Amino acid sequence: MTDTDVLDELLDLEGRGWDALCASSGADFYGALMTDDALMVLANGMVLDRAGVVDSLRHAPPWRTYEIQDPRLVHVGPAAAALIYVAVAYREGTTPAFRGVMSSVYLRTPDGWRLTCYQQTRFPEE
Length: 126
What we know:
By secondary structure, this protein is an alpha+beta fold. It has one domain (3-121): Nuclear Transport Factor 2, Chain: A, CATH 3.10.450. Helices cover 29% and strands 46% of the residues. It contains 3 helices and 6 strands; from the N terminus they run ααββαββββ. The protein has helices spanning 3-22, 26-33, 50-58; strands spanning 34-41, 47-49, 65-77, 80-90, 98-109, 112-122. Strands 2-1-6-5-4-3 form a 6-stranded mixed beta sheet. A hairpin with a 7-residue loop joins strand 4 and strand 5 (98-109). Helix 1 (3-22) packs antiparallel against helix 2 (26-33) and helix 2 packs antiparallel against helix 3. The N and C termini lie far apart (40 Å). Pfam families: DUF4440. This is Nuclear transport factor 2 family protein.
């Protein structure tokens, strides 16, 4: 599998995740995508395990739209890769509600890619 193939697959997964967040189905999507020991490190300083992510997403307001910009692939090992990108997400209006750098580390399993670690860093307000 080429780097372009891996990048395309991981971008597809990230897009499906954002689509789920827009459709208020993120809890189900990430509950299935995350490994049992996965963690999410959020821009507000919270660190959530899989159960915490699922619970928090059940109560999260949906995003209206999003953009994924400047994606980069980093090989972490023979069966793992990290996707790094800039996310711009909107809830209401034309001003982004969130703008930051995302890092998603995926593990390739016999069932496909699984999210094992996710981290976000918000850009400072301009």
